[in-house]
Amino acid sequence: MREARFPDLRTWLQALEDEGQLARVRKQVHWQEELGGIVRRTYDVYGDASPALLFENIVDYQPPGPNKLFVGQFRSYSRIALSMGLPPTGTTIRDIVDRVRECLRNPMQYNTAEKGSAQENVVIGDDVDLLAFPIPLWHHRDGGRYLGTMHIVITKDYDTEWVNVGLYRIMAVGSDEATIYMSPGRQHIGQQFYKYQQAGEPMPVAVAIGLEPTLPLVGSMLVPSGECEYDYAGSLKGAPIETIRGKTVDLPVPANAEIVIEGFIDPNEQKMEGPFGEYPGYYGEVASPKPVIHVTAITCRDDPIFQGSMEGHPIAESHVMAAIIKSATAWDVLERNGIMGIQDVACIPEASTGHLVVSIKPSVQGHADWIASALWGTSTSVWNFKHIIVVDDDIDPWDAGQVNWSLAWRVKASEDIKIWKNHRGSPIDPRQEPEKKGYWDRVLVDATRPFDWEPRAIWGSDGTNKGTPQKYPPTTRPHKDLVDLINGRWEEYGIEPVAQYIGSPVGMMRHWWIRGNEDREDRG
Question: Is 382 helix (H, G, I), strand (E, B) or coil?
Answer without folding.
Answer: helix
